[in-house]
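This entry is set out below.
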Amino acid sequence: MHSSIGATRSIATSQEGVVLVTSLILLLILTIVGITAMRTSTLEERMAANGALQMRAFQAANSAVDGYISGLLKDYTEDNDSSALGAIAAGDGSTETIALRDAEITATAEPAYLGQGLGIGHSIGVGSAGIASHRFEFIGSSELQHGGARATRAAVAAGISVLGPSN
């Protein structure tokens, strides 16, 4: 009987510390998994924020172009004033910077005259040598300054055709 008690004690003394080592290894694995999950969520948050900033910059550039075109077409259709379109066609079109409520964003629209062509799809141009379609392009750009190290930029282009007298 005495020998079986000694054998039990020798087994117990050889297993001392195994639970401690096993729990430390498990704790290390859980720490690594936790750190990896935090890094992944931080990266996903940055990607979402960059996407939102890019969308804001694109919308600002688009607003600049829409505002420029709306102003020109209002002058042309409601006030019968084609002087701004004529200035663009002559190469004297000014770049327009729009004021946005957000001070972090600067948006501009730059016009360009692409020339004249046939008024395709317009019956008014058939058989009439004095009517042409004048093509204009507007390039909008924006820059969004934010807390990051660099600015977010976007650009957009739009075009219109206006029927008018040929040159």
